[in-house]
Amino acid sequence: GAGVSQTPSNKVTEKGKYVELRCDPISGHTALYWYRQSLGQGPEFLIYFQGTGAADDSGLPNDRFFAVRPEGSVSTLKIQRTERGDSAVYLCASSLAGGPPHEQFFGPGTRLTVL
Amino acid sequence: LAKTTQPISMDSYEGQEVNITCSHNNIATNDYITWYQQFPSQGPRFIIQGYKTKVTNEVASLFIPADRKSSTLSLPRVSLSDTAVYYCLVGDGASGGYQKVTFGTGTKLQVIP
To answer: How many degrees, rounded to 5, is the angle at CA A51 between CA A50 and CA A52?
Structure first.
């Protein structure tokens, strides 16, 4: 079956620009997570959705970062006024409510480069 | 969230058994222990999870002693394709559904021909 997909796979932008990163979770998975991973580090939690609502956005670094999931399926991570420090791989994961705890299914990530 | 400590890196020859130990001294009663594997340019992949004693699946075994303050991921007869970063996570498994998980820096396993 189809796994989690993310688009684009690579995004290069200039400092100060706006970017959107998309995540298509596994069909039927109500929970969706965004992480950011810098080189040599483990994934860093950004935000979690249960259905359409952001249940935990405590990992968003500042107000330039925002995420939506309007219909409870596809999610978009939006970054305004990008900075060079935002360069990282952005990972999306989804999970099944009631499934084994901590079993999240990850997409391949979007590599964001801010020049 | 309980903090975990694991070796930064390990090397192993092909065909050997590899054991990666994770320390989690502050593990709570409801916490489960979960291991993920991550290949370069891919997202992490869930490989095994346990609460106590031993769990085995087609990929690995997970050994958890009675005090649960550590756990050991065992990979039998590794091959070059097992070269990856392995993450140990600890978190509340009682609530079901969502649990915020924290990835550390993981253990980078290099399998040598």
So the answer is: 110
d(CA A89, CA A110) in angstroms, rounded, equals 5
Question: In the Cβ-directed half-sphere of B113, how many Cα atoms lie within 13 Å?
Answer: 0
Q: Which of A109, A65, A107 is nearest to A88 (CA)?
A: A109
pLDDT, tens digit, 9 for 90 and up, residues A19-67:
999 999 999 998 999 999 999 999 999 999 988 998 889 999 999 999 9
Q: In the structure, how many helices (H) and strands (E) does chain A have? A: 0, 11
User: B71: exposed, middle or buried (C-beta count within 10 Å: 0-12, 13-18, 19+)?
Assistant: buried
> Is the CB of residue A53 less than 8 Å away from at least one CB of chain B?
no
* C-alpha pair distances (Å), A92 with each of A32, A70, B11, B30: 7, 16, 30, 26
Distance from CA of A89 to the nearest CA of B (A): 9
Q: Span A5-98: which CATH code?
A: 2.60.40.10
- Domains delineated in chain B: 9-112 (2.60.40.10)
Q: pLDDT tens for chain B, 113 residues: list them.
A: 568 999 999 999 999 999 999 999 999 888 889 999 999 999 999 999 999 999 999 999 999 999 999 999 999 999 999 999 999 998 876 555 556 678 888 999 999 99
> Which site among A102, A104, A106, A110 would you substitute to test the B interface, given the most B Cβ atoms closer than 10 Å to its Cβ?
A102
